[in-house]
Amino acid sequence: MTPLLYYLFLKPISLLPLRVSYLISDLLFVLNHYVIRYRKKLILNNIRNSFPEKSHEEHKRIARDFNRFFCDFIVESIRCFSISAKEAQKRCRIKNLEAIDELYKQKKSIVLAFGHYNNWEMVATALGGSLKHKTSAIYKPLSNKFFDKKFRETRGKSGLQLIPKQETKSFLEDKKDKTYLVGFGSDQCPKRNKTNLFWTKFLNQDTAVMFGTEKYAVDFDYAVVFLNIERVKRGYYEVELKIIEENPQQAKYGSITKQHTKLLEDQIIQNPQYWLWSHKRWKLQKQDHEICH
Predict the structure, then answer these.
(1) Any idea what the Cα angle at residue 170 is, between residues 164 and 176, rounded to 5°?
(2) For 51-70, how does the pLDDT look when each residue is reduced to its tens digit (9 = 90+)?
(3) Residue 156 confidence (pLDDT)
(4) Within a 10 A sphere around the Cβ of 156, how many other Cβ atoms?
(5) How many angstroms separate the CA atoms of 280 and 6, rounded?
(6) Pairing mode, strands 134-139 and 180-185
(7) 24-29: average pLDDT
(8) Which of 107, 157, 159, 245 is most buried, with most CB under 10 Å away?
(9) What is the pLDDT of residue 68?
C-alpha cells in the first residue's frame, strides 16, 4: 500500500512545478483551516503561552498564517522527492559561506544547530552541495521502512548523509579525523526520562532543550554554527550560517545551548508564522521533571 501511495500520488505531485503545487496548497489551507482544523487547540495554546502580551485576534492571525505556511511546507517537501540539487540550491541562497570555508581550511568540523523553522527540509536538500564540509544530520528513522528509505535518498541527492540518532556517538567517533558538518535539530521536546537536557527560558516559558548539540560539540571539539533561515517568498529562502562558538571546550557550561536557543527565539518572534506550532513542544514541564528526579 505504501509504495502505491508514493508512486501514484506523492511522486506525480512532486514532479509538478511549485507554482502549480501552490494551488494544491491553497486548497489544503481552506480544508484544514475551516474543516479539519488540525491541532487547532494545541496551536493556539502554544501561541498564547508564547505571546501573552498579544491579543486574542493576534493569536488567531498567527495561527491562520501558520496554517497557510504549513500547507506550503507540505507541497514544498513533497517537491523535494523529485527536486534536483541545482534547483534546491537556487531556491535556498546561502550567505556567509566564507566564514564556513575558513573553518574547513582549518580542518574544523561543525555542529549545526537548527530549528523547525521555515522549510528546513528544502534547505537540508540544498546544503550538501553548497559546502566544502561533508554534510550529515542526526534524525529519528521513520517507522515506515519504505518512506524512511525515500527520505534518505531525497536528502542524499546533494550529499547529505542521515545518521540515526542512536548512532550519533559512534558516527562522530568514526569521523574524528575527517572534516564534517553534523546537523542537530535543537527545538524538539526531550523524552521525559532523558537526563541529558538543559532547562532555559524559551518563548516566555521554562523549556527543556536537548543538550546533545553542546555536549557533542564539546566532546569532539566541533565549532558550533546556527542555521538561520528566512523566507524571501513562496519557495525561496535565504540561509545564513552564524558561528556561535569556534572553541566549545573553552565555553561556559550551558552557554552554547542558551545561544542557539536564543537565536531561534529571535527568528520566531520576528516572524512567528514560520515555526512548527503544531509540535507538542512543552509536554515536558519543569515541575514534573523535578518531581521525577
Answers:
(1) 120
(2) 999 999 999 999 999 999 99
(3) 81
(4) 13
(5) 27
(6) parallel
(7) 97
(8) 245
(9) 97
Which one has a higher pLDDT value, 150 or 225?
225
Contacts by residues 260-263 (CB-CB < 8 Å, ≥ 24 positions apart): 260/113, 260/186, 260/213, 260/224, 260/226, 261/186, 261/187, 261/200, 261/202, 261/207, 261/209, 263/226, 263/228
Give the pLDDT score at 2: 84
Contact 160, 128 (CB under 8 A): yes
**40, 60 in Cβ contact below 8 A?**
no
Closest CA to 212 of 235, 234, 194, 237: 194
Closest CA to 209 of 256, 267, 274, 275: 256
Residue 233's DSSP bridge partners are 236
pLDDT at 289 over 60: no
**Grid coordinates belonging to 269:** 518572534
Question: What mean pLDDT is reported for the chain?
Answer: 92
The pTM assigned to this predicted structure is 0.93
